[in-house]
Specification:
- Helix 5 (183-192) crosses helix 6 (210-218).
- With 227 residues, the protein is an alpha/beta fold.
- The chain has six helices and eleven strands.
- It binds NADP nicotinamide-adenine-dinucleotide phosphate.
């Protein structure tokens, strides 16, 4: 590193918390900031600082990137259910000897009025649904197939971008958009679609808590996958 160059921090991002951290570090001005996004959505909101998009090619690819770019510190601020990238970060930083910090946002805790059933797997979540339920499935595309056999339920699925292939559910409604932090928006959506059950993961954070509050206010059962 040239003597006057700033240390370079790599933020593994894709979350509101990662973007907020990039903003803070850039504003402070004592480090150069690169945020890495997986490239899952077509028009992501870009944080300040440098942004790179796309996978690294496993832990080895990430280690190579750290070396090539002279990264001096890695901050894993990815989603708590994004396990592979977090494991890769542990391996790549161990291999390169670069310090790693992991920002883990706490999970949500049930409060009075919540009707949660906490489950340990998506299979258990699929089993827990009663026949005839109209289910808001707040899960990414890669998690939906576990629910395909529940042809006795109707699914309402929200995605940021339209899927490349039509979803293989016999009875579903696809909504394009992001979660709202405002419970009133989520409650209006649930009411419009006659939702009887919410299925989601215990992601924590404010950005997607609106649906949890909406379910509480509407008295809807929530089947929630624990960490
Ligand atoms: P994952 O299963 O842990 O990662 C799968 C692969 O995607 C990784 O092996 C890596 O590819 C690439 N990848 C993931 N995050 C990356 C990043 N920040 N920068 C560069 N490459 C990345 O993760 P996922 O559940 O698919 O989530 C992908 C991204 O979306 C994460 O960054 C996460 O923060 C964000 N996100 C996820 C969720 C969720 O529900 N899982 C929700 C909101 C946001 P290579 O092995 O090729 O490097």
């Amino acid at each position: 590193m040239p003597p006057d160059a700033k240390p370079k921090v790599l933020i593994l991002g894709g979350t509101a918390e990662a973007a907020a951290l990039a903003e803070q570090l850039v504003a402070r001005g004592d480090v150069a900031v690169v945020t890495s996004l997986a490239g899952r959505t077509t028009s992501p909101v870009l944080p300040p600082g440098e942004v790179r998009i796309g996978g690294f090619g496993g832990a080895a690819g990430l280690a190579a990137y750290i070396r090539e770019q002279g990264i001096s510190r890695v901050i894993d601020a990815t989603h708590p259910f994004a396990r592979r990238i977090s494991e890769n970060a542990i391996r790549a930083t161990a291999e390169t000897g670069v310090p790693l910090e992991h920002l883990v946002r706490p999970g949500w805790e049930p409060v009075r009025g919540d009707r949660w059933r906490e489950v340990g797997s998506l299979e258990e979540a699929a089993q827990a649904l009663p026949a005839g339920a109209t289910v808001f499935l707040a899960l990414g595309r890669q998690y939906l197939d576990t629910f395909l056999h529940r042809t006795d339920c109707r699914f309402v699925i929200r995605m940021v971008d339209a899927p490349a292939e039509p979803l293989p559910f016999s009875n579903h409604t696809l909504i394009l958009g992001k979660p709202s932090a405002d419970p009133a928006d989520e409650a209006a959506l649930f009411a419009r679609h006659g939702i009887t059950h919410l299925v989601c993961r215990n992601s924590g954070g404010a950005a997607s808590y609106g649906k949890i509050v909406a379910a509480r206010e509407m008295g809807l059962p929530v089947i929630i996958l624990g960490r």
